[in-house]
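Appendix C reproduces, verbatim, an entry submitted by the partner laboratory led by Prof. M.T., so that reviewers can inspect both the input and the predicted structure.
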Amino acid sequence: MQVSGNQVSGRNDVKERILRAAADLFMARGFAGTTVREIGEHAGVGQSSLYHHARSKGQLLAELHANFSGDLIGLLEEVVASQTSPTIQLRGVVATIMAVVHDHRAVATVYLRESYALSDERRAELGPERTKVNAIVDLILERGRSSGEFRSDLDIPLTRLAILGMCNWAYQWYRPDGRQTITEISECFADLAEAAVLGGRPKKAGGGRRKSPSASVAD
């Protein structure tokens, strides 16, 4: 991810520092609890330089979302374009998201937790980018179902929600110094995702199939 690593990708060093500072503070204090002045102080830049690069903290929040979304989509598109089976691609999606949570925790947290603070205009602009992630996962699941590699009764929207929810929620509890490494967690999550799409559906105590939930799924 651009704002958490060493790559600048066209941005100058000052803007990069401002974005990293904003991500760190938004994660620690929340968007509402952070001021523009604090971002400048954390980045080590003066107020005139700060306002030259960012008119408001809302602008910084939108840029963090746009950068994160674009980078994540690029990584996932590499996975889906690989000449591998749907099962391996699905595991690749899980590994990619978990690696992002580990390597770029601040930006991932801002993206997943602070989107409520985006303006209506910015939310509308970024909406299509967010849905691309869903579309990539849906494509992999559909390929697996159509080829017979995955279960024929696979509910694609519901399965995608389960897998992405499992991975995305990790930002809430994952700690680099925790009991398990990110690789171990990623492997466990990938195993769970694989079992969900390959395994048979569980049976009730009486031997019958479980009924699919009747509630509609909101994408």
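The two ends are 25 Å apart (CA to CA). Additional entries are available on request from the coordinating office.
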